[in-house]
Amino acid sequence: MGRKKVAIKRIEDKSSRQVTFSKRRNGLMKKARELSILCDVEIGVIVFSSSGKLYQYCSDSSLNKIVDKYTRHIELGVASLNADNEAESYEVELESWKSFAQLVQIIEIELEDPNQEQLGVNDLIKLETQLDHALTHVKAKKTELMMDSIEQLRQKQDNVLEKENDLLKEEIEATKNNDDEVNGQSNQPTLRLLH
After folding, report:
1. Sequence-distant contacts of 2-10: CB under 8 A, at least 24 apart
2. Measured between alpha carbons, how far is residue 7 from residues 11, 72, 120 in Å?
3. Which has the closest alpha carbon to 53: 21, 98, 95, 90?
């Protein structure tokens, strides 16, 4: 007797959904572990439950290394795409969105759409490329803001140091004046009365 085909749609019963999530998550992690061992590949799996709990598997010692490697690979891919006319059309389309948050909402809508099975590889690649462009833009803006902040702090520090330098000059000048007054008084003859 075979298994019945399960319709791929959201499970309405919360407890059934949790059980299915737990079983399929464990199956996914097991398959990832087997694939990494059998084929000697680096694998990183990140899963967030509906409650926001993080589950992860990493075939390497560090998931950060895999994510960094993925980021470098994507950046190289994006750089090579920029040479193509297709990439230019993605950039034009990307500029039409107002914010990174709006892009994320569009991607979520695309992926939660009941017709998501109809999304092709090209559609997913296009969404990924758009997300990468937005992420690159956000990183550049973050770097720019950090550099501005560092420059402002440096200017404030320079101003404070200038003021302290001026105060020290004034103190040195006052000390010199006091020394001159003391030395000037000691050079004048003093009168002594004899008895």
Report:
1. 8/117
2. 9, 37, 20
3. 21
Which amino acid, one-letter code, is at 59? S
pLDDT of the chain, 195 residues: tens digit per residue: 567 787 788 888 889 989 999 999 999 999 999 999 999 888 988 888 888 888 888 887 788 888 888 888 877 766 565 555 555 555 555 555 546 666 666 666 666 655 555 666 777 777 778 778 778 888 888 888 888 888 888 899 999 999 999 999 999 998 888 887 777 665 555 555 555
- Chain centroid to CA 131: 14
The sign of the dihedral angle between the CA atoms of 115, 119, 124, 126 is negative
Q: Is 0.70 topped by the overall pTM?
A: no
CA quadruple 9, 14, 15, 17: dihedral, nearest 10: 20
